[in-house]
Write a structure and sequence with these properties.
Layout (H helix, E strand, L loop, with lengths): L2 H27 L6 E4 L3 E8 L12 H21 L3 H24 L2 E9 L2 E2 L5 H21 L1
Antiparallel strand pairs: 1-2, 2-3, 3-4
Helix pairs in contact: 1-3, 2-3, 3-4
Length: 152
């Protein structure tokens, strides 16, 4: 696939992921949402508002400062995405950008990020997360894997 077409597909993927992220968060914020256990002992849906960044770090930092940080990182990532020659790296960065955009939109619109996926093992809960966080995590894991594969 030509690089220009690959980037168009990656951008479309990022926009679709962003739309799914925003749609699920709108549903969670709606009156029809009710917390529930999907897979007993493993996975549930909750409503959580994260005023910080990952795992509620920097929760006391003003939203405007967090927005500036995210925009700076996003600018760096757009440049890295454009310069990347490896397809896995391009797709990974597109996923991270989609996730960052989803959480940034929440922060700008609401002042917090909507989280709703509750992964747990019995009583031990991982911090609630969302589809944007999932994209960021999968993209980061793919970048690490790509880096490890490139060393071989």
């Amino acid at each position: 696939m030509e690089p220009r077409h690959a980037r168009a597909h990656q951008a479309a993927f990022a926009l679709v992921w962003l739309a799914l992220d925003q749609a699920t968060k709108a549903w969670v914020e709606s009156a029809s949402f009710a917390p529930r256990e999907l897979v007993p002992g493993w996975l549930g849906l909750v409503r959580a508002h994260n005023t910080g960044i990952a795992f509620s770090l920097l929760a006391d930092v003003p939203t405007s400062a967090l927005v500036v940080i995210v925009l700076g990182v996003a600018g760096f990532l757009v440049r890295a995405w454009w310069k990347a020659e490896n397809a896995l790296e391009q797709w990974a960065i597109a996923a991270i950008l989609a996730g960052a955009a989803g959480n940034l939109l929440d922060r700008l619109r609401l002042g917090y990020v909507v989280d709703f996926i509750d992964a747990h093992w019995g009583p031990h809960h991982w911090p609630a997360f969302n589809l944007a966080d999932t994209a960021i995590t999968l993209g980061a894991v793919a970048l690490v894997l790509q880096g490890l594969l490139a060393r071989r």
